Sequence to fold (181 residues):
Amino acid sequence: MTTNPSVLAQTQARAAFRRSQWLERLVPTTLVLFLVVPVWLFGSVDNKTAAFGLLALLAAFATTFLGREVQRLALPGIIAGSCPLLCGLIAAHSGHVCAGGMCSTLCVPACLLSGGVAGALLGRLWARLASSLPVVGVSALLCWSVGALGCACAGHGGVTALSLGFVASAALSLAWLRRSS
Fold:
């Protein structure tokens, strides 16, 4: 082992760089953990909510080992998925609305609209970055699984509304932006 100060400094710098890379790779997992744990603690935890939370955690952790492009789009996917998560949870606690003699909870419309917003945001980003199919799939899975945590309040209807809004707006956004460029 050498005691040359420049070699020691270079070795320490490389070790610090590797540690910072691993910490940066764990940011999506940490963010999903901070979103999932409060939902599990303060929300109504059933099998669907547990499964969506576990899926989100596993997908976020998988980005640690995937390529740089996937890691770059993991955070936008999680952030876009937090829109349906928050809208679904707020709608679940706000009750219902009555119009024209019909009453309905706000969960399904909130999940449809917020899924549309999330899909439009991610579709725009995918088109701008000309993302490959695996990258689109991972960021879409992250967005959908995080959003489904909040939309599970309405049962299958809320998750279906989230899926329809997300897929429709992402496809329209991608098609429109690719056509205009």
Q: What stands out?
A: The chain has one domain: 5-180. Helices lie at 5-25, 27-42, 47-62, 68-93, 107-129, 133-151, 156-180. The beta strands are 96-99, 102-105. The chain has seven helices and two strands.
